[in-house]
Amino acid sequence: MQKTLPDTPATQLKTWHELESHQKKIAELSIAEHFKNESDRMERYWLEWEDFIVDFSKNRIDKKGLELLLHLAEEAGLKAAIEAQFTGSKINATENRAVLHTALRRLDNQPLLVDGKDVLPEIRGTQEKMYTFCEKVISGTWKGYTGKAISHVVNIGIGGSDLGPAMVVEALAHYENHLDVRFVSNVEGDHHEEVLKGLNPETTLFVIVSKTFTTQETLSNAQSIRAWFLKNAPETAVSKHFVAVSTNTEKTAAFGIAPENTFPMNDWVGGRFSLWSTVGLSICLAVGPEHFEGLLEGAGKMDLHFRETPFEKNIPVILSLLSIWYNNFWGAESEVIVPYTQYLRNLPAYLQQGIMESNGKSIGRDGNPVDYQTGTIIWGASGTNAQHAFFQLIHQGTKLIPADFIAFKKSLKGNTDHQNKLLSNFIAQTEALMNGKTLAEVQKELDSSGMDKAEQERLTPFRVFEGNKPTNTLLIDQLTPASLGALIAMYEHKIFVQGVLWNIYSYDQWGVELGKQLANKVLDDIQGKQNHPHDPSTSKLLSKI
Question: Which of 229, 266, 277, 297 has the lowest tally of Cβ within 10 angstroms?
Answer without folding.
Answer: 297
